[in-house]
Amino acid sequence: MSDSRFQPVHRPSAPPASRRRRFAPGEILMRQGDPGHSAWLIESGDVDVILERPGDKPVRLSHLSRGALVGEMALIDQGPRSATVRAANTVVATELGHDTFRRMIDTAPPLANYILTSLLAAIRRLYGIPPCERSEGSGNIRSQHDYARVLNRRPFREGHCFFKEGELASHVYLIQSGRVGIIQGGTRIAELGAGRLFGELAVLLNVPRAGTAIALEQTTCEIILRNDVEQVMGSLPPILRTLTRFYAGQVARSRPGHAAKPKAGAAVPHVPEGDMPGEMDDFL
C-alpha cells in the first residue's frame, strides 16, 4: 500500500527539484494519518512500513530497502498517509515533491485518473482506512474521447448479469445509478453503488473474471471498452502506468480465488507484489 514498495532494477538519478536527507535509526519518514507532501526514494538503508490500528498493536506490513518508493499514495489521491514509515537503521533517501506527481496526475486522461484513484480507494478500504472523498464520487466520467457526449451509458434491469466468474474480460463498468452485487463461489462479497467501477481488475491484469456481477436493482452504467482502457493506460507516464498495474495486483490478491496469472500470451504483465520494473528510471 502507500506507502508501498517498489524495487527498480537500476539506481535512478535524482530529479533536479529533489533533495537528499539522512534519517537516523527509529526516525519517522512519514506518519499514518498525516497529509502527504512528498514521497521518498530509498537510496541506502532500510525502512519498516507500519499499519497503526486503534486499540490494537501496530502491524509491520513490509521491510523495504534500497530502491523502494514510499509515500506516493497520498500524493496521487490527496488523501492522508495510509501507513507509518520508520527508519530501521540509518537511511539516506531522496525526496520527490508533491508537484512532481500532481503534474502527471493533472495531465492524465480522465478515465485513467479515475481508474487509478479508484484502485487507491480500494486499497485504503482493504486496510480499514477511509478512502479519500475525491477518489470516488458521482461517476461523472466518460469513456468516449468527446466527454460532452454520452454514447455508452445504458440502463440494466434488476437481475441482469454483466459477466460471469471465469469469463474473459472485454469491458469495464462505471455505475451511474443503482447497485451491483459481486458474487464469488455463490457468496456475495461486495455491493457497489454510484461512482464505483467494477470489472477493471480483469482488464488491467488480463486475467479471467474473478466473480460474477449482477444488477441488484434498476442500474445505469457507463460501459468502457477494453480498447478504451488500454489506450488511456498507454498514454500515461511509465510510473503511473506501472503504479496502476501494481495497485490492481494488490487489490486482486486481496480477493480470494482471484486468478494470479495472466492468460497465455497476455500483453499486460503481472507485477509481483513488492517488485517494480525499471520503468522507475524513466520517471526519474
SSE layout:
Layout: E1 19-23, E2 28-30, E3 38-44, E4 47-51, E5 59-64, E6 69-70, H1 72-77, E7 84-87, E8 91-97, H2 98-107, H3 110-126, E9 153-156, E10 161-163, E11 171-177, E12 180-184, E13 187-192, E14 197-198, H4 200-205, E15 212-215, E16 219-225, H5 226-234, H6 238-253, H7 279-283
Antiparallel strand pairs: 1-8, 2-7, 3-6, 3-8, 4-5, 4-7, 9-16, 10-15, 11-14, 11-16, 12-13, 12-15
Helix pairs in contact: 3-6
Strand order of the largest sheet: 1-8-3-6
Average per-residue pLDDT, rounded, comes to 78
Structural class: alpha+beta
Proportion of helical residues:
10-25%
| Poorly predicted spans | 1-17, 135-139, 143-150, 259-284
- List the helices and strands in order: EEEEEEHEEHHEEEEEEHEEHHH
List the main descriptive attributes of the protein structure presented here.
single chain, 284 residues, alpha+beta, four-stranded antiparallel beta sheet, 7 helices, 24% helix, elongated, disordered N terminus
Fold and architecture overview:
- The chain contains seven helices and 16 strands.
- It has 284 residues and is α+β, with helices and mostly antiparallel strands.
- It has a four-stranded antiparallel beta sheet with strand order 1-8-3-6.
- A hairpin with a 7-residue loop joins strand 4 and strand 5.
What does this entry show, briefly?
The chain is built from seven helices and 16 strands. The protein is α+β, with helices and mostly antiparallel strands.
